[in-house]
Amino acid sequence: MRREDVKMGEGPKCNGIGLVLGDSPSSPKNCEGFMTDYEAIVSGTDAPTLVLAGPGAGKTYLLADRVQRLLNQGVRKEQITLLTFGKDASTHTRDVLVDQCGDFRIAREDLPRISTINAFGYGIVREKPRAVGLRKTGLQVQGNGQIRELLFRDAALACGYRKEDGTAALKWKQEGDVVSAPPETLHLICEKYLEFMRKCNCIDFDDQVILACQILEADADMLAAYQEQSTHLLIDEYQDINAAQFRLIELLSGGSRSGLFVVGDDAQSIYEFRGASPKFILRFAEDFPGARTPPLACSRRCPKEIMGDAAKMLQRYYSEWTGPFDLEYRTGPGEVPEVLQVPSDKGEAKMVATIAQQAISEGKSVMVLAPKESFFPSISKALTDFDVPHDCPSSLLPMREGNRLGVMTDLARWVASPNDSLLSRVALEVLINDGAARVAGGKRTANLKPETLEARVAAETDIAALWEQVNRDHDLYSVIASVDSDSEPLRSIKNILLDLLESYEDEGKTERGEFAKRISIAGGVWDAAKMQHDLCAIADCLWSSSPTGFGTVQLMTMRKAKGLEAKVVILVGLEDDIIPMPSRDEAEEARLFYVSMTRAKERLYLLHAYKRPGNISFGSELMDKQRSRFIDVLGRKSEYKKI
Length: 643
What we know:
Elements: H1 35-43, E1 49-52, H2 59-72, E2 80-84, H3 87-98, E3 113-116, H4 117-127, E4 140-142, H5 145-158, H6 163-174, H7 184-199, E5 202-204, H8 207-218, H9 220-229, E6 232-235, H10 243-252, E7 260-264, H11 279-282, H12 284-287, E8 298-299, H13 304-317, E9 328-329, E10 338-342, H14 345-361, E11 366-370, H15 376-385, E12 390-391, H16 399-416, H17 421-433, H18 450-465, H19 476-481, H20 488-505, H21 514-523, H22 528-543, E13 553-557, E14 566-571, H23 586-597, E15 600-609, H24 629-632, E16 639-640
Parallel strand pairs: 1-7, 2-3, 2-6, 4-5, 6-7, 8-9, 10-15, 10-16, 11-13, 11-14, 12-13, 14-15
């Protein structure tokens, strides 16, 4: 469910903080038998501390309480820094501290620095951008994953390497390892990528921290100033850090290790794709000698029945887990999770709608979690058919229509800002992939002919070479517009973009509809029938009459549900070729399943289907699909349900 829908005062008594992110409980001070341990945890300042806090343990309240106690002890707010991983968490922590009906009631002007760790790094980069080859004026953070992949490919080809080397360099950079030296190939590609980004005066999401570390390591006075501001350094979600973020924490806490206070749970480390790893929790005492690692052994979200199943599964598939702990349950009554098999994906969608409809009628919050977004269109349709209000943060356009719309949108964005080199780069890719300058071989399939691959790599290499001419005075489009090349793809791209921009800028002078005609030709994905179909599909999504009423069911992917909760949680798509995802680490997939299970406050439903379409499954079997091995560990048979 949505954060604003979570109600206060449900179940055990609440102290007025509210359960906005799902982990801010009634005050630990009110938990009999828990007071002594809690006091030792929140008050200690004589050693680096890692608090092992599981789902719903109360980590947000703990961090807020820590801030207030430090201020009450006379610590200046300028000596306290609290870093989180998401904007919502930062905002929520501030709200908890200033809430005049809550436990802390701190004036907003008396708050210490509370920021996301990446925004904190960005502030350091903006303070001294020239130290890393950037300009303060117009400095931007580039967060588009497609652009990053394209620039790493360009960087690899510009250095004389392969596309696959660029992918490897991107992965190494995402892991944020700023200490160990990469292989020379990856190092050269990363340097070339940074060169391209500097030409655009941009940094990416990871650079906010990586470059901040470089600046601090090269400037002793600046480092000392930031260490003073981090005399008491508080870190939320420590299990989510990567190597670069660890290095930043290490640098900031270098002046006062005993002031380091972090909260995390290795069982909830689910962002391996960006370099996060539970190892930073597992080796905390090694990284910071003399450290304490006490557990916050309390559950105020999940009842024993749900937490017990989740722990049983995790113990089987994540052997290094620091838990389970002997928890004190401060929850309302719970139910044993139900394991249901349904005939098909359509049957699954109807089952979801049936469960959700009943829960909403009982005034309960509902969350539906899926392994990926492709589950949502059929579930959304079923909820609409059952007149169940729901909210889905993802596009409900079918994949083919969404892909075609993406092509046209990329070109439309470029014509509005043709001097944006990054938008120009996306437009070039559109033209050689799907558009009027198409060069076959973009998808490296096993049966691709060698001559086709050779022609494609040549075109990609020609595009990569354009970056050498980009500088402060010449953006990528101006380079293309003046190019005089023997490359047929480049000549074609040049003519298409010139023609497209001319029709856009002269729309009032040319025949009506000329620009629409030219952009359709340039994109290469719309003929009359597809254009009509896609526009109608978009209209259906925008103007469909969604059900309204009390309570809204929230549809989310499993990975995006972290930090949220609902009274009723429904997990779908739990076949063994979907979860665990074959291409991912089994232990991390188990942690993801654990996180998903522990969003539930009262009821948990685990659904798997007998058959599933091939465009959703990862395996080859479409019928008689096996349920996830994570469910098998629970030791219960599935109940077959047909609606």
